[in-house]
Amino acid sequence: MSQQATAGRRCLRAFVSGFFVAVPVTVTFLDRFAYVARVEGSSMQPFLNPEGGSKCDVVLLNRWSVRNYQVQRGDIVSVV
């Protein structure tokens, strides 16, 4: 019985330590480098969401280029 409890504690400890490493890394990545967003509606048709309706497209927004002012003509810019 104590071996099962020890294995459970090891598993819980590994999960918690992995959680405390993964969360800050993920938050930093989403804040500094890239962000996943959904494009809904007809404002970007026909380039994004060509069928319209209830479907939406998922895009990766590059935050690194914007922070370094590397926006070029033809780029799609998202403003919140």
TrEMBL record:
Subcellular location: Membrane
Topology term for the membrane: Single-pass membrane protein
MF annotations from Gene Ontology: serine-type endopeptidase activity
Top-level taxonomic group: Eukaryota
Alphabetized UniProt keyword annotations: Hydrolase, Membrane, Protease, Transmembrane, Transmembrane helix
Any one GO cellular component localisation term in the record: mitochondrial inner membrane peptidase complex
TM ranges: 12-30
GO BP terms, alphabetized: protein processing involved in protein targeting to mitochondrion; signal peptide processing
Alphabetized PANTHER family for the sequence: MITOCHONDRIAL INNER MEMBRANE PROTEASE SUBUNIT 2
Name of this protein: Inner mitochondrial membrane peptidase subunit 2
